[in-house]
Please model this.
Amino acid sequence: MNKRHPSVDLREQKRSQFAAPARGKGRRNRAVLIAIMAATATGAYFLGGSLAEQSAPLAREAAAPTSGEPDKDGHILIPISEVSSGQARFFDYRTADNTLVRFFVMKSSDGVYRAALDTCDVCYAAKKGYHQDGDDMVCRKCRRRFSSAFINEVSGGCNPVGVPRTVEGDSLVIKSSDLEAGKVYF
Model:
C-alpha cells in the first residue's frame, strides 16, 4: 500500500479545483478578446470610410472648376498651355436647360490630351466624380483608380465617360453638343 503525504493530496485537490475553471475562463477571455478585436477592426473600417468621405469634398474644392463657355460656333476652346502639366483641370458647362455638366481635361502620361465627364456609367447617381492621385483618376464613390492613359480609350462601367476632343493649333476643342449629350449623367 502506497501512502501519500496529506499535503500532496491537498495540492492535487487545489490543482483540480483551479484547473477546470482556468481553462473555461481562458476560453471566455479569448472570446472576449476576439470580440473586442472584431469591434475595433469594424470601427476602424467605418471610421476610415467616414474620414475619406469627409475629405472628398475638400479635394473637390481644391480643384475649383472653370467655366467652359462655348464660342459662337458652339466650341469650347481650352488653351493647351493650361492643361499640359499632367494635372487634371475641371470645368463646368451650363447646358441650354440649365443643367450643370462637369468635365475634366488633362495631358495623360502617354502625352495625349484627354477629356471626360466628371462621372461614370456606374457611380453617376452619387454625383461625386473623380479626383486625381498621381497619374490616376480616382472615383470618389467606389475608389476605383483609372490610369490617365485609358481616358477616352476605355468606356462603360466605372470608367470616366470620355468626351470627344480635338487639338486645333494651341487649343483643345470640345463641342458643346457633346457636353449637352452628357447631361443625362448630371
Summary: The radius of gyration is 31 Å. The helical segments are 6-62, 176-181.
